[in-house]
Amino acid sequence: MASTPTIGANWRRISVPSSGVGRRLDKFLQDHFVNLSRNLIFKWLRERRIKVDGVGIMQPNYRLTHQDYEITIPRATAVYVRPPRPQGPKSENVISSWMLYDDDHIMAFNKPPDIAVQGGDGIDISIDKLVRQLDCVETPRLVHRLDQDCSGLIVLAKTLDAASHLSAQFKNREVKKSYLAVVEGQPHRHASKTWISTVSTVVKAKSREGFERMVPVSRLEGTKHVALDGESPRMCETRWRYVSREGTSFLLELFPRTGRKHQLRSMCAFDIGSPIVGDNKYDGASCARLMLHSFSMTFKHPDPKLGHFAIHAPYFRKYGQLAEFKY
């Protein structure tokens, strides 16, 4: 049975598909609803507001043992149903087709959107699994992360020494990274194509609807968010510039100087007032994918002879229904 939810005045109902049998209740809900946070799920469980076939459940590790179970959860504003993920590729030829660079020390790929970098519960296809199919002396190692919904450049180390070398650079913020993002609406201070530096102090906060976001401390009250207990504010710095526009959509280049969670997504939504298209978590315009692309990276190559090394990942000029942008 298709897992299509029905929405009532106060409740959402969903039938469990065959792919959900055997999964934990909390993991199933997180995977199915884009903006349903783990904390909100746990809160609802404590209050017995999540029901399976009419019975209130309190245990997050409750296993769904039968297909067509009916799960009922409270209705919450802006909970988006995650569209079915396409069946992922499983052949060596596909991962090889994404390859941008390969030598004895590192390899780089242009990751499509909706492909996870690291495997986990409920994730069938991921970069770390696919690279095991390649003919390498050692299993390539991840040295940085990239959101599943984000496309673009991902670099892996092919030896332990290379992994240590690159990991230290990421930890010390010595790697220069740039991203491309399509945003909806005119960004503040967008008039020139010169670089603009945006600095803000963000904290993990919860909205009145129960959704967690990284929000600038100065905007907490105005955005109706409350900082989570025990969360320390963190400074974020991003340089960005306006590149081009098509109607009400703008292409921006983003250069993060720090590496906070959701730094670019939060900055676009709160600091420049133009959420990234497809970013449901930060109220972006509706789209089939998140319009954020990891575009380039510069670092010291593990081979000293190669010195500072730069890699670029070509971006997809067609952004869903948006027209082509010139870059």
Automatic annotation (TrEMBL):
UniProt keyword ATP-binding present: no
CDD domains, per the entry: PseudoU_synth_RluA_like (cd02869), S4 (cd00165)
Pfam annotation, one family: PseudoU_synth_2
Homology family: Belongs to the pseudouridine synthase RluA family.
Keywords: Isomerase, Mitochondrion, RNA-binding
Domain RNA-binding S4: 23-89
Keyword Transit peptide: no
GO BP: any one term: enzyme-directed rRNA pseudouridine synthesis
An example molecular function term from Gene Ontology annotations: pseudouridine synthase activity
Database matches in Gene3D superfamilies: Pseudouridine synthase, RNA-binding S4 domain
Protein name: RNA-binding S4 domain-containing protein
